[in-house]
User: Fold this.
Amino acid sequence: MSGTCRVVLADRFFMTPAAIQLLKSVGTVVWAPEKAEKTLMAKVRGATVIAAEYNHITKDVMDAAKGTLKGIVAYGVGYNHIDVAAATERRLYVANCKGSNAEAVAELAVTLILNISRGTHTGDRLIRNGKWRSDQSGDLPSILKGRELARKTLGLVGMGEIGRRVTRIAKGFEMKILVYDPYLSAEIVNESGAEAASLPRLMAEADYVSLHVPLSADTKGLIGEAEIALMKPTAYLVNTARGAVVDEKALLDALRRKRIAGAGLDVFSVEPLPARSQFLKLNNVVLTPHIGGLTQEALEEVSRMTAEESVRIA
Ligand code: NAD
Assistant:
C-alpha cells in the first residue's frame, strides 16, 4: 500500500464519507461513472484499483490500466460484470462484498413472496383507482383472494449468504424448506433446518421457488422451460438473483397461460426493464427495479467493504 494509489470508482454508487476518507488515506479517489467502454478506458488509466457496481470491467478496461492495476472490487455481491478469467490471466485480484447486503435481499425476497401471495400490489392499484375491492360490482376479484405462507413449501435454489437468511425468516412461517445447492453437503443444509433436494424435485414440490445463485456459465438459464414446466399451477417464482438465471421467454409464456400462479421479479436480463417488456402487461407479476440491496444498512456496509477491499488490494 502506498500514498500514491489511484482508486477509480467506475460507476455512480453510494459511498459514506468515512469510506471515501479511508480510500483517500492511501491515495487519490476518482469517480468515473461513464458507461461507454472507450470513455471508461481513458478514465482508468493509472488506476491501482477499480471498483464497479454495474459497469463492465472487460479485459480492454483492465489493459487500459496496465502496469498500475492491482485489482478490481465489485461494489456489491454479484460480480458477473467483471471478466474474472481475464483478471486471473493478468494476475489481478478480484474482490466482492460478500454478505454485505444479504439481509436486505433476503427481506426483499420474502416481501415479494408476501406481495404476490396477498395481491398487495393489485389492492393498492384498485384503491387508487377508486375501486375498493372490485370494479364496484361487489364481487371480490379472484386476484385479491390470497394464499397463506404457513406450512407451505419453499424451494431455495442456492443457499449461500442470502438463501440462509431466507431460510431463517421462512422458518418463522413454519414453512418446509427444500434446497438445491450442489456445492453444499446435505448435512449443512439439514443443520439449517432445510432439506436437500434435486432441482426437479424442488421445482415440482415447492409452492414458492426463490432464486439465490450467482450468475455464471453454469447458472445462465438454469430455470428454463423444462424446470418451469415442473412447477405446480399454484406455485410462484421469485427472482432476486440475476435475470439471466431464468429463461424469461419461458417464464412469460407460463405466466401468460397461467401455467404458474405468479412471479416476483427484482432482476431482469436487460436492465432497466425496457418499456416494451411483456412483464409490464401481466397482473400476476410483482416487479421491483433491482432494489434487493437498496437499504440504508446494506449501502453503508457495501460502501465500507468496497473501501476496505480496495485498501487491501492497493
Ligand atoms: P453466495 O455466494 O453467498 O451464495 C450463492 C450460493 O449459490 C452458494 O451457496 C453456491 O454454492 C450456490 N450455487 C452456485 N452455483 C449453483 C448452481 N449451479 N446451482 C445451485 N446453487 C449454486 O451469494 P449470495 O450473497 O447469497 O448472493 C447470491 C446472488 O444474489 C449474487 O450472486 C447476486 O447475483 C444476487 N444478488 C442480488 C441483489 C439484488 O439487488 N437483487 C443483491 C445482492 C446479490
